[in-house]
Specification:
- It is a single chain.
- By secondary structure, the protein is of the alpha+beta class.
- Helix content is about 40%, strand content about 15%.
- It is built from 8 helices and 7 strands.
- The strands form 2 sheets. Strands 4-5-7-6 form a 4-stranded mixed beta sheet. Strands 1-3-2 form a 3-stranded antiparallel beta sheet, with helices on both faces.
- Helix 1 crosses helix 2 and helix 4 packs across helix 5.
């Protein structure tokens, strides 16, 4: 006997895990928009999921310390909000540099770059998330492009030997090959560091 649509939706949410954020359209393979919207509204009313914005829901992560739902991750919210309108988001150069371990500086505001046409501010669960339009050169972002953007944030004259050695040791040979292909697109001041990063040295595959 076929499973009810509500059970299929619930199973997919559970599979994605706590902290996952999704749109109504993510379940349209199960039923019509009206049916999916009604089921998600019911699940939100039951407390199984929570509605962040119109058409945007989260399977909340429960804090073991506080025993209540943690705030949603801003990056996931930004991605879902942009995806709802067919756009994409990427981290800022500061966020990328932090993720790569190139800086300990943490961005104070939840700002993300988008290929959407205009600047937007979204208020979700006491958080303000800002989407800023940016150049198409930021999309799509793979590992090599992220490194270039991270070093761009560090700035000319501020790339240290420690940063270079970190990238040499952490990048796989495949990532180094991809980065080598991006050298023509990198700023000239960054090239000496990038060429050293992509040197053929033993590293993870």
């Amino acid at each position: 006997m076929p499973k009810p649509i509500s059970e299929k939706i619930r199973r997919r949410i559970l599979k994605d895990g706590e902290g996952s954020i999704f749109l109504v359209r993510d379940f349209l393979d199960f039923g019509t928009r009206e049916t999916v919207t009604r089921i998600l509204s019911r699940l939100a009313g039951e407390g199984f999921i929570r509605r962040l914005q119109q058409g945007v829901y989260e399977y909340p992560r429960i804090s073991k310390l506080l025993g209540k739902a943690s705030p949603p991750e801003p990056g996931k919210v930004a991605e879902a909000v942009a995806r709802r309108t067919g756009n994409r988001v990427v981290p800022t150069e500061a966020q990328t540099a932090n993720a790569l371990g190139l800086t300990t500086q943490v961005q104070a505001r939840n700002i993300y770059l988008t290929d959407g046409g205009k600047k937007r501010r979204v208020r979700v669960q006491n958080q303000t998330i800002e989407l800023r339009p940016t150049s198409a050169r930021y999309f799509p972002r793979n590992g090599s492009e992220a490194i270039i953007q991270g070093l761009r944030f560090v700035g000319e004259g501020n790339i240290t030997e420690e940063m270079i050695e970190r990238m040499q040791g952490e990048l796989t040979n495949r990532q180094k090959a991809a980065l080598r292909r991006k050298l023509p697109d990198a700023p000239s001041w960054m090239l000496p560091a990038l060429r050293r990063i992509v040197e053929r040295k033993p590293g993870p595959e």
